[in-house]
Amino acid sequence: FFFCRPRSHSSATASVALRISSGMDTTTTTLLDGTSVLADPDLQEHTAKAGSLAVRGFFKWVTFEVLGHAVLATLCTGTSYVLFQYILNVENINVNLLPHVLIGMVLGVILVARIVNGSQQATSAAGSVIAFASTLRTVAMLSCNVSETLTINAGADHEKKATTKFRYELVRLLNLSFYCYTLMLKGLKLVTPPASLIPLEGGVMEAEVLSVVSCPTAMVCKWITSLLEEQRQAARITDQQVSVMTTELIKLMKVYQDTHGLQFTPMPAMLNGFSYFFVVVWVYSMAPVIAMMEMHDNGDLNNEGFGLGLAFSFFLALFYFGLYEAGKIIEQPLAGVVDLLPIDEMGHTLSDDLSNLVDDPNDEVPVFLPRPPDARNGKI
Asked: Whole-prediction pTM value?
């Protein structure tokens, strides 16, 4: 049968305290049919953290390079204004803006296309993260098919211990696979796994293997396959059931390969180089054009047109170089996913779900990746 372990009383109390302290809606509502419901607190928590990460990225495009170009373009405009009026003594300049306007429009479309393309890749990567976690939950649920085969007293105890060990190892490996997967998203490599994910036996050898192989997540999936084969040979699970679980592991590997492939997708270097070159040329060529326009309309350096010209140059350069900087997500879409998704929080929630989904009547499968103490106390 399917057995879901409820959280312990202390864990539930800490969770409620966290939700209250973080301002989450914990009000219970009674429907017309007598059902009592409340807003999903886990969804609220994930949404709040995702929103917090999004707010942090609002002005991430405002880098020192972007600000430097904006300041330099402003100085070029001011220098051109002084040069035309006091050194070259140029008067009544009439500038045709049509070429610059047309080029600026085309350049803006190209820069926006870079942002859209990069955002699509980041969205695809985010979907892969969710699909990976979903597949892990499915494997944990399907593990309920594994059961003891012997009921005779002489072998029942051995079978019970073997099945309990299988559940423990399966959930541990599922957690370890997601942990390695998140490290891959962050561009990191596992050297020593967390203490909670070290096996009871052979932990040193396992850590050495994971630190050597190029794809730790794939290696963990291989160990899960071997674990299932052991259960099949012991007749604790049928061939058909193994086939179903193996299919899910294949899906898991496909999601991993799709995500991993985004790290090695050739960067559109030609498009990036083309965009950057013409952004620089267009912005800095606009500096003297703006100075000429202001001289033609206002004439005097002491007029307010000089200040308006400087402000216009600054914000124009900030806009175009900012568009280029925002489009850099096309170069590293996985970095965009890490910046926008609460990956660590997803891991804690997944670990809790995996321990609950597995058939564990004796409560011997722990939450391998629990939330840190600060989060339990309401400090996020």
From this structure: 0.74
Q: What is the pLDDT of residue 225?
A: 92
- Whether the Cβ atoms of residue 295 and residue 92 lie closer than 8 Å to each other: no
The 10s digit of each residue's pLDDT in 9-41 is: 344 444 444 444 445 556 777 666 667 776 666
Alpha helices in 237-268 (DSSP H): 239-264
For tokens 């629990």, what's the residue? 370
| Beta-bridge partner residues of 36 | 30
Residues 122/341, Cβ–Cβ less than 8 Å: no
Residue length of the chain: 380
Q: Please check the confidence at residue 241 and state whether its pLDDT lies above 90.
A: no
How many beta carbons lie within 10 A of that of residue 95, not counting itself? Answer: 14
For the four alpha carbons of 170, 173, 177 and 183, in that order, the dihedral sign comes to positive
Q: What is the pLDDT of residues 280-290, one digit of tens each?
A: 999 999 888 88
Q: Cβ(356)–Cβ(3) under 8 Å?
A: no
Collapsed DSSP state (helix, strand, coil) of residue 25: coil
In whole angstroms, give the CA distance from residue 12 to residue 8: 6
The pair of three-digit structure tokens given for residue 343, joined into one six-digit string: 């990956």
Please spell the DSSP secondary structure of 278-335, one letter per residue. Answer: HHHHHHHHHHHHHHHHHHHHT--TTSHHHHHHHHHHHHHHHHHHHHHHHGGGGT-HHH
